Amino acid sequence: MIMDRKGNLMTIGTPFPAGIVRKVPTQPRSSTWAPPRWLAMAVWTFFVATWVVLGILMIVSPGTIDEMWTWFGAQSTLLQVVAWIALLPVMIAVAVLRTTWELWLRIGVLVLCVTWTTVGFFPNRIARRTG
What's the helix, strand, coil split of the chain in %, to 5? Predict the structure, then answer.
């Protein structure tokens, strides 16, 4: 037996009165955190500039990417972990460019990484989602 708020006995299986069942309050969508527009724009601009520089290096001086990878491998483990976390799409692209995979596969992964950052970090998406 179960007692309701007024002290009335209820048998098991009977529906609860409306006063006992409570809705869990949900937060309105506008109260969730979203990065400020200037930060979103800065991150997007940083990744676009990084891809442009990487593309220019691939065309002008392909050996520079290998030298950069070698220099990066000589750094401390902590710096490498931080860089992999902060620059994951770029690090994946550079790692794939150094493999012996077929050219079309390496370029395909590079295009996916570029698309991932330029579309994923585009500031207008953030404005629509929170506005």
Answer: 65, 5, 30
